[in-house]
């Protein structure tokens, strides 16, 4: 990745989206270092690390060294965004162009792309295949890595006076198309993103000498404005085979010996449990075994680590987040607890056993007071994953018309096989009772 414009936006987007690490490689080492510092500020992965290195993409040895150093420092190269490039410094017709200018454009833009794809694909080919997960249970195959190259609208069309840039960007497209079909058999995907005008230092240099260009761009682009680099970064990140929901980061606080408040841990939560035949994942973010909670010597944290929380804990609390695959529906169930439910991402139907139902969208909240219900993830019309968080607090017996309401889990209990305290429900579910 690169230390300016679109490259910087891509690095920041990946750091924010939970990447484990990034390496910024640019001709300008100081700029690369400045981007690593920015990435550290927005990174959401507790293990995140950002490195900077100098590279000249026109130099074979330099590209080889940068790629090798990334693989050795970060362990592997899952994603490569190749954004190093130059614009055409002057508007000139082909008949009036210098051969040296053409050579320079081809050297940086086309040869640079060739060397980056070649070195990165060579490393990726030797990496272990990683299976791609699917919330739908579909076969998505495996990947050794993904390379995204910045082409341009000039990879497709000609712009008056920009012949040398156009030639170099058409060459990039040819390389990308060939690399894509050459390497897919190794589990390596190669794609190009081809924006038109993007507000980066490259374009700013041109508009500084030709201010009338800004008005021309506005008149040509349907949205009537120049794109910004983050919009391009979103497209680049979309091409990486990452799961649909961001990794959750959990921070737990406590005390140091001097009695000051400190962070005890930063991680991704405890006890990830596959549910709904791999189409949902539960993540216990906290649980406590008694009220009030015993915090002495971090006993609460220790207890949560030692045993996975059952669906709810008598006299205690459970904070459970569940990622649902597209269109997943839970079985009807009732837990004798008060559940505070929040939609973190997506859209859900909350259906009660009376047949009444409500739609809950991101940020919506429900208090589920020991009632029989089920959840249906309808995010994106049933095409996208969704995420909900529940805090389950124990409650007393519920009597309706003098009769005590009973809890039941039905087939939901099967999802809790092996969890202490759930044996009776699990056995009943397995025996079809
Ligand atoms: N800005 C636009 O309007 C626009 C539109 C379409 C495509 N693109 C393409 O997107 C890519 C990124 O452009 P940007 O707008 O972010 O430009 P930018 O000028 O902000 O960034 C380009 C980066 O490439 C680096 N670089 C230049 N020569 C190098 C070399 N030999 N070795 C290593 N690094 C080198 C520069 O130091 C700079 O950090 C380019 O390929 C460009 O052609 C840009």
Automatic annotation (TrEMBL):
<dbReference type="InterPro" id="IPR011051">
    <property type="entry name" value="RmlC_Cupin_sf"/>
</dbReference>
<dbReference type="InterPro" id="IPR020904">
    <property type="entry name" value="Sc_DH/Rdtase_CS"/>
</dbReference>
<dbReference type="InterPro" id="IPR014710">
    <property type="entry name" value="RmlC-like_jellyroll"/>
</dbReference>
<keyword id="KW-0521">NADP</keyword>
<dbReference type="Pfam" id="PF13561">
    <property type="entry name" value="adh_short_C2"/>
</dbReference>
<dbReference type="InterPro" id="IPR047142">
    <property type="entry name" value="OryJ/VirC-like"/>
</dbReference>
<dbReference type="InterPro" id="IPR002347">
    <property type="entry name" value="SDR_fam"/>
</dbReference>
<dbReference type="InterPro" id="IPR036291">
    <property type="entry name" value="NAD(P)-bd_dom_sf"/>
</dbReference>
<protein>
    <submittedName>
        <fullName>NAD(P)-binding protein</fullName>
    </submittedName>
</protein>
């Amino acid at each position: 990745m690169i230390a300016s414009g679109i490259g910087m936006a891509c690095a920041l987007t990946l750091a924010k989206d939970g990447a484990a690490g990034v390496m910024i490689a640019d001709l300008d080492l100081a700029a690369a270092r400045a981007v690593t510092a920015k990435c550290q500020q927005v990174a959401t992965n507790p293990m995140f690390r950002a490195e900077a290195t100098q590279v000249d993409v026109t130099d074979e040895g330099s590209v080889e060294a940068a790629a090798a150093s990334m693989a050795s420092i970060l362990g592997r190269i899952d994603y490569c965004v190749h954004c190093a490039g130059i614009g055409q410094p002057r508007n000139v017709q082909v008949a009036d162009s210098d051969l040296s200018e053409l050579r320079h454009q081809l050297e940086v833009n086309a040869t640079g792309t060739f060397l980056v794809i070649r070195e990165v694909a060579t490393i990726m080919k030797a990496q272990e295949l990683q299976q791609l997960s699917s919330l739908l249970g579909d076969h998505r195959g495996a990947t050794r890595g993904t390379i995204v190259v910045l082409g341009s609208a000039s990879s497709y069309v000609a712009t008056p006076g920009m012949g040398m840039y156009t030639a170099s960007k058409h060459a990039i497209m040819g390389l990308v198309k060939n690399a894509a079909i050459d390497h897919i058999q190794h589990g390596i995907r190669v794609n190009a993103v081809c924006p038109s005008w993007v507000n980066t230092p490259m374009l700013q240099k041109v508009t500084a000498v030709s201010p009338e260009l800004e008005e021309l761009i506005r008149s040509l682009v349907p949205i009537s404005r120049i794109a910004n680099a983050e919009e391009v970064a979103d497209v680049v990140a979309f091409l990486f085979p990452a799961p649909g929901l961001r990794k959750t980061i959990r921070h737990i606080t406590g005390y140091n010996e001097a009695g000051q408040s400190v962070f005890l841990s930063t991680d991704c939560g405890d006890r990830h449990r596959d549910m709904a035949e791999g189409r949902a994942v539960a993540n216990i973010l906290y649980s406590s075994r008694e009220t009030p909670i015993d915090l002495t010597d971090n006993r609460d944290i220790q207890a949560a680590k030692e045993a996975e929380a059952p669906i709810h804990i008598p006299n205690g609390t459970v904070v459970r987040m569940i990622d649902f695959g597209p269109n997943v529906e839970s079985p009807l169930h009732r837990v004798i607890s008060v559940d505070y439910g929040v939609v973190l991402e997506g859209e859900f139907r909350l259906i009660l056993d009376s047949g009444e139902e409500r739609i809950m969208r991101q940020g919506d909240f429900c208090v589920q007071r020991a009632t029989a219900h089920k959840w249906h993830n309808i995010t994106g019309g049933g095409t996208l994953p969704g995420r909900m968080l529940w805090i389950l607090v124990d409650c007393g017996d519920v009597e309706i018309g003098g009769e005590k309401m009973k809890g039941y889990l039905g087939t939901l209990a099967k999802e809790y096989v092996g969890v202490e305290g759930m044996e009776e429900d699990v056995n009943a579910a397995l025996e079809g009772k």
